[in-house]
Specification:
Number of strands: 0
Largest sheet: none
Radius of gyration: 21 Å
Order of helices and strands: HH
Helix content: over 70%
Low-confidence stretches: none
Distance between the termini: 22 Å
Number of helices: 2
Oligomer: single chain
Shape: elongated
Mean pLDDT: 86
Strand content: under 5%
Length: about 90
């Protein structure tokens, strides 16, 4: 990182920052939608009769969400590792 103005990494413009934030929000919304669809489908009986979750449903949802985020983290780490390795190979 350079201390001299005009040198170093270019700073993103406001429009780029807004676009990046919108893309991140879209990705988070899509991920939450997938989480909701898969865990609700797996854990909650479609012909429920009570307004509150049963103990088993609650435990199932908790485990499902935990596994979902574990997988998301592992996939993200793998993709970042692959990208870094690919970038390292390009630099040689």
């Amino acid at each position: 990182m350079s201390f001299l103005p005009g040198f170093g990494r270019p700073q993103p413009s406001s429009a780029e920052k807004i676009a990046n934030a919108e893309n991140e929000m879209d990705m988070i919304t899509e991920m939450m939608s997938r989480l909701n669809q898969s865990c609700v489908k797996k854990c909650i009986n479609p012909d429920y009769r009570e307004g509150d979750l049963a103990k088993g449903e609650s435990v199932c949802l908790d485990r499902c969400v935990g596994k979902f985020f574990d997988v998301q983290m592992k996939v993200s780490e793998k993709m970042q590792g692959d990208a870094a390795m690919k970038q390292g190979q390009m630099g040689m």
